[in-house]
Amino acid sequence: MTDPQELQLSRRERQIMDVVFAKGEVTALEVLESLPDKLSYSAVRTFLRILEQKGHVKHRKQENRFVYCPVISTEQASRSAAKRLLKTFFAGSVHKAVVALLEASETKLSDAEFKRIEALIHKARKDGR
């Protein structure tokens, strides 16, 4: 079993994990119905079994079906993905990543969002990061 903190997934595994994270608990049928392009029911069950073997989901039996849920929270998964993104595309540079995000975004930040970002920057500076 791999470390679930390292969410290195195939495109299809990522799609399924997105459904699992969005719903919190999910059956194979619910995953099947939520995918953008359809798979067979048995293929979805196979992917869920693989994701469980990799340590990304766990299941419990409810009546005559398996109900799957993520092993880690969306916040943990987001942090893991952000670390991989930094390492892969920005050579570990937070500065380069922030610049790219600000330049790429078409959404205007609110005053509250600016204040939150400023507070995070201030805390990072205070913590020596």
Biggest sheet features: 2 strands, antiparallel
Shape label: elongated
Biggest β-sheet: strands ordered side by side in the sheet? 1-2
Overall structural domain count:
2
CATH topology of the largest domain: Arc Repressor Mutant, subunit A
Number of strands: 2
Structural class: mainly alpha
Order of helices and strands: HHHEEHHH
**Poorly predicted runs of 5 or more residues:** 1-5
Count of helical segments?
6
Q: End-to-end span in angstroms?
A: 32 Å
Name the CATH superfamily assignment of the largest domain: Winged helix-like DNA-binding domain superfamily/Winged helix DNA-binding domain
Mean pLDDT: 89
Query: Which value, in Å, is the CA radius of gyration?
Result: 18 Å
Any overview of this molecule?
This protein has 2 domains: 1-91, Arc Repressor Mutant, subunit A, CATH 1.10.10.10; 93-129. The protein is mainly alpha-helical. It starts with 10 loop residues before the first helix and ends with a helix. It has helices at 11-23, 28-34, 41-53, 74-90, 94-104, 111-126, and strands at 57-62, 65-70.
What attributes characterize this protein structure?
129 residues; disordered N terminus; 2 domains; two-stranded antiparallel sheet; mainly alpha; Arc Repressor Mutant, subunit A; 60% helix; 6 helices
How do the strands and helices of this protein lay out in sequence?
Blueprint: H1 11-23, H2 28-34, H3 41-53, E1 57-62, E2 65-70, H4 74-90, H5 94-104, H6 111-126
Antiparallel strand pairs: 1-2
Helix pairs in contact: 1-3, 2-3
